[in-house]
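Please go through this chain and its backbone structure tokens and walk me through the local backbone shapes. Keep your notes short.
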Amino acid sequence: MSRSRQALMAGVAAVDITGTAREQADDPLYGRIDADAAADRLFVKALVLQNGSTTAVVITIDAVAIEEIGSIRNNYLATVRQALSSELTIEPTCVLVNASHCHGVVCSDVAERTIEAVRQAKAQLVPVQVGVGTGHEDHIMENRRLRLKGGHVADVRHAYSLPPDDEIASVGPVDPQIGILRLDRLDGGTLAVVYHFACHPIIGVPSGANTADISGFASRVIEDQLGGGAMALFLQGCGADINPILYRDFDNPPDARTHGARLGLSTMRGVVDVTCDDDARLGLIQRTIQIPRADLSSRIAEMEQEQKQLLASLRPTNLNLKSYIPLLIKHRLSPEYPSYDAYRYLHEESLGRQDLRRLDTKNQQQMEVYSANITIMEQLTRLQVNLDLLRNHQRRFIEDGTGFIDAEVVALRVGDFVLVTFPGELSVELGLRIKADSPHAHTFVSGVTNGYLYYTPTVEQLANRGRAQEDSDCLVDESWEKVFTDHVDQMLKQV
């Protein structure tokens, strides 16, 4: 693609979409949210880009997804595209909607407000210069996949307990790169910053109020720092297996403001290093591809058998939690003399008695049985959660009957900024591989875009199906990854 002599035109707008309890969906995603209290506002933001006959619309929305889960209805994308086509003559395939994946509650008329945001953005087109760069942030997130010594992988979630520490061998990678697209007006002021980062924005705020979470607070920091009405638009990356740090912290109230402030400042450090020029290249390629569905019947049968085996491995013990904890504390505080002080043992032994030692041995055996039962029950809990997910998706597989899912893939180029999108929640390892293999220096990969296809793990991760939620809350067959990456390779060469 050669550089165009025409100026790139851009316009931005934001519309408030903060919802209330009246609009809160009956969904476990919202179980901890007090929607009538708002810690901050949720927005849909629109960036309209135009160069000659080429138009691209990038919409970012503070929502868990734009369809399928959460409160945004499944006709949202079609409704928005139809309205933009009829009213603004914008081709449906030129419209890209990325959800931040925060778990905030949005208003019921979010489609109408999205249309309004694009309408305002298009009415405010101005010539811009373009700059691309990167930032770095590695303090606010962690990979939630825990590689176990037995070869399986577990994940860090609120839905179930963690495996024992001595079973954990290693953790997966993160992607600390912040992708930055900067658009400056010709007078030098910044019109917009599009920033890309991979992390679940799901930590919340201490009050439990409705919030746009990490990305919402980060955007506010960027906008405040830039001033002049500049707008920050967040693109969710390949964060399917990336949690915010302190996600399971039991000692401190969760607070996305701290994480968001750090992400915002780290982004700004990258923004100020970006130099803008008159590179007006604008290109967009959209494809609808067929992703193979997974038949989960055999894996479900295997997990059901594993459940039976685990249940059969539970052993009787005369302890309960009330007796187990004091015994455990005593044996941990003084492993050599747990029942009494040392002198009592020495006195008894001087008289040829071993009563205390035998008592301790018996208690230790009971504790070991009880501890093993706890571990088994935790395994059963994790299995049950993931088995329920597999059964749900298997029902959908049977009901669908086609064996395939339609999925939109988009490749967008703005100057040297190249973005690839997919509707599923992409894992960080896949995003890192695509970026490394791309012919473009500044390539970024976004999930949860133009629909929602649940988790889409790598082939390697799907071998673990049933043991981690992102491998279980999943519609796709193992062959999906090659189908997707083959199309991505072609599109990256063309855009």
